Each structure stands twice: as C-alpha cells, then as structure tokens.
Amino acid sequence: MPLPTVAIIGRPNVGKSTLFNRLVGKRLALVDDQPGVTRDRREGEANLLGLEFRVMDTAGYEDEDAATLPGRMRAQTEAAVREADVSLFLIDARAGVTPLDEEIARWLRSTDRPVVLMANKAEGRAGESGILEAMALGLGDPIPFSAEHGEGVVDLFEALLPHVERDEEEAPEDDESPDAPLKLAIVGRPNAGKSTLVNRLLGEERMITGPEAGITRDSISVDWEWEDFEGGMRKVRLIDTAGLRKKARVEEKLEKLSVMDTLRAIDFAEVVVLLLDATRGLEVQDLKIADRVLQEGRALIIVMNKWDVAEEASSLFNGVKKALDEGLAQVKGVPLLTVSAVTGKGLDTMMKVAFETRDAWSRRVSTGQLNRWFERALEANPPPAPGGKRIKPRYVTQNKSRPPSFVLFGTRVDLLPVSYQRYLINGLRKEFDFGAVPVRLSLRAPR
Ligand code: GDP
Ligand code: GDP
Questions:
Q1: Quick check: keyword Repeat in the entry (predicted)?
Q2: Scanning 115, 199, 421, 429, which has its CA 20 to 30 A from the CA of 250?
Q3: Residue of minimum CA distance from atom 17 in ligand 2
Q4: Class of domain 367-444
Q5: From the candidate CATH numbers 3.40.120.10, 3.20.20.70, 3.40.50.300, 3.40.50.720, the one assigned to the domain spanning 5-164
Q6: Which of 209, 273, 285, 286 to mutate to test the pocket of ligand 2 (most atoms within 8 A of CB)?
Q7: Is the pLDDT of residue 274 over 80?
Q8: 316: enclosing H helix or E strand
C-alpha cells in the first residue's frame, strides 16, 4: 500500500522548506533567507510522532514581487494539492495574511480538497494577530506552529491523523461511517410505551413490561439489526431508558430517576425518539424533553405511540403537529410519526426515518458547494446595515458535523440580526437537506 501524501504549500518565505526538513528529518531541502531561490519540488518520507507519510515541498517557483500567483507556482501548487491526500497550507503568522495568501485560500476553498491551515513562525507570542487573521481565510482554525522550533507538532499530528491514517482494518469504529451502528435512544414520559416498543423492535421479551412495574434488565445499551426496505441489515445500538426507572418504587423518586436516565440517553444518542402517548396527547413535559434534545444538538423524531387505540386520529395528529411547531420555535418540521408498539405498525417507517435523520445529522458539505450557495443567498437577500454600518459576510465553512455546524466569516458579521441568521440557517437546511436536525451557525468577525 503506497504511503499517503501530504503537500506543503504557501507563498514564498513562509517556512515551507523548514517544515519539510523538520518532517523528513534530513536536510534534504535547501533553506535560504533569500526568496526566489529556484528549487525543484522535493519529496521525502516523513515521520511525525509515528505517523508515516510522503511529503512534497512545493517551494521553489516564486516571485515575491508578483501581485498574483505566478503561473509556474500556481501550476506547481495546484498539481501538488490535487495529488496529495491532504495539503498543509502555511502562512507566516508574523507577517500576517497577505493578498497572495488570500488568493491561494480562495483557490483552495474552490477545490474541495482537504487542507490543514498552519500559522507558522508562531513561536512566542509574536504571531497572535496573524493567527486571528488566518481564521478569516475560511479554511478552519489555523494551527499555531513553529517549523523552526518544533512547536505545535501534536496539533499537527491530530489534524493530519484522519487524512493519513493507513490501517483501515484496525481503525476504531468510525462513528461517521454510514455502517456504524445507529445510536438510538427512546425517551418519553412513564407509560408512553418505551419498554413495549423496545421489546417489539428487538423481537423478543428482553425486558419485562406492563403497568405493574417490575424489575428489568440493567443493560445500558443493546445491539441489534434492523432489516431495511431493501433487505439490507442495518446495525442499531439502542439505549434502554426504561430499565433503571422500573426499579424505583416511590413515585417521587421515580420521576427523578427518569430525568437522569433521559439525560444520559440523550447524551449517548445520535437520534432520539421522543415517544408520546397518543391517548394523552402532547404535554408540557414532552416539549421540555424535545427542547432539551435539540439544545444538546441531537437529531429528534417525535413518535405518537398507541395509535391503535387513538381516537379522532387525524385531528389529534394535526393538533400535536401544530403544538410542536409552536412549541419548538428553534426547529420547524421535526418528523412526527405514528406507531403502535403493540401491533408493530409504523415501526419500519420509524426506523427508516431514524436512519435518514442520522444521515442528515452527519452530513458534510464541501466549502465549495457552501459558498456557491452562500453567494446566491446574499444576493437574494443582502444583509442589513444596522446603524448605517455595512456588514460584509465573506464566506462560510462547515467546521463540524453531528450536528452540522458552520462558521460565517466577515466584517462585522457578529452584528447580524437573529432574523438574518435564521434566514441563513433555513437556507442551509433547505439547500443541503438537513431536514429538521439542529443546525448551528457561529459568527466570526476578525478585527
Ligand atoms: P519557504 O520559502 O516557504 O520554503 O520558506 P523557508 O523554509 O525557506 O523559510 C523562510 C525563512 O523563514 C527562513 O529564514 C527560515 O529560517 C524562516 N522560518 C521558517 N520557519 C520559521 C519559524 O517557525 N519561525 C521563525 N521565526 N522563522 C522561521
Ligand atoms: P414505559 O413506561 O414507557 O416503558 O411504558 P410500557 O412499555 O411499560 O407501557 C405502558 C403501558 O402502555 C402498558 O400497559 C403497555 O401495554 C401499553 N402500551 C404500550 N404500547 C402500546 C400500544 O402501542 N398500544 C396500546 N394499546 N397500548 C400500549
């Protein structure tokens, strides 16, 4: 298996060769204080805290005076970035971000290739303002680094790890893989039917259910497989919130334990099913749990159980739907489903929606796609100018998934009114199919 490759790119004199030397360990590349010294592209085998990869240094085609990237350097950089599994983009934190850095960043954002941004020459405190400026390049948070002094090596290691790790068979279970078990929690008020539902899903009597509140298994979670509509087996890890609670005898204690259980389950889960009792409708307590799930950034599905005995089904359904949309102001359109844990009706649809919801919750959007949307969104509805001061949003990146989280950079974007932020969040939701999973947007205005 060939070694993964890492390219070192950046404008002249930011420290590419110095970094190359540090990674490769031998003085293979020439370091010179004079910019413009012509060098060939150098390659070597690097070892960073045990992580092995091939590294390419693109230094050598440079012309400090050029206002834009000279042709040869551009071609060289582009080829390296395309070839590499990940690129290290260096800026000089002492010199700050230059127009040339911005030009390279703009191009990188359009390529969708993985990039790790490094603010080099950041030893001591000299590079602080450069680090802040680099945040605005729209390529994620820079790693403060010193190629000369070897500072920041652990952070670099962590940033590279996901891109250059080779041993796929031995890699730990990757939560982001679509094959990873769906972590599902079923929460809800006592008697909503959680235990009955879990039993039904598992297809066997693993837990004792019934109004008599007996003793159940203490298992925290149970693994099983759901057969999807195409006949495929999908792994599920289900947390049981009913078990502990059932042991309690005193009513008061029961409620307390139930809350603790619920919080723990939410913490564990990717997708939370909030089970309602259709014979009781939506209660304040349910809305509180739903709100909590969304606040914790988990994907939420609301399921009305006991649909087999529901009366005036359609008006009940519409009433709950309306109350949810009013009660959960932060996210509209949370899926509302109906099931019967006793007959099993609706459970396959529930599982299908749970997997789809996790896909949305885990989705990553490339910076290129994001910014093509972003430009259209700004054009369709330009941001306001509070107090006559223009807000100039520049670009968006997704810094996290699970839940999808975005960072918006630009001048004075921290002053964007909530209504405008909501406009952007709803736009993201629609454009990239995030459905009703929580979407987060943070604002960064470099000073
Ligand atoms: P390249 O043109 O990007 O390959 O840059 P070089 O590696 O040739 O470095 C340019 C200059 O910056 C040299 O004088 C290096 O000694 C200096 N340099 C590189 N890394 C650092 C660093 O971490 N801190 C400081 N203070 N200087 C550095
Ligand atoms: P939990 O406290 O949420 O775990 O609820 P249980 O699973 O213990 O169920 C409480 C009661 O509701 C039991 O008497 C169940 O038989 C009943 N129940 C649960 N699901 C359904 C359903 O889909 N239809 C009907 N008719 N009754 C149900």
A1: yes
A2: 199
A3: 193
A4: alpha beta
A5: 3.40.50.300
A6: 209
A7: yes
A8: helix 313-327
Q: Is the pTM of this model over 0.80?
A: no
For residue 243 the two structure tokens come to 């078990």
Question: Residue 218 has what pLDDT?
Answer: 40
Euclidean distance between CA atoms 392 and 408, whole angstroms = 11
For ligand 1, mutation pick of 131, 148, 156 (most atoms within 8 Å of CB): 148
The span from the CA of 357 to the CA of 362, in Å, is 9
Distance 219 CA to ligand 2 centre (A): 20
Residue partners of 151: CB distance under 8 A and separation at least 6: 122, 123, 144, 145
pLDDT, one tens digit per residue, over 32-89 is 444 444 445 678 888 777 678 999 887 654 554 444 555 666 777 888 898 899 999 9
Q: Is 305 annotated as a binding residue?
A: yes
Question: Would the CB of 127 count as within 6 Å of ligand 1?
Answer: no
Establish whether this prediction's ipTM goes over 0.85.
no
- Structural domain 182-362, CATH architecture: 3-Layer(aba) Sandwich (3.40)
Q: Tens digits of per-residue pLDDT, 354-372?
A: 999 999 999 999 888 898 9
- Ligand 1 near 73 CB (within 6 A): no
Contact 426, 319 (CB under 8 A): no
Nearest CA to ligand 1 atom 14: 33
| Segments in 149-306 forming alpha helices (H) | 153-164, 194-202, 242-247, 251-268, 284-295
| Closest to 305 (Cα-Cα) out of 275, 271, 350 | 275
186 three-class SS: strand
pLDDT tens per residue, range 298-308: 999 999 999 99
* Closest ligand to Cα 306: 2
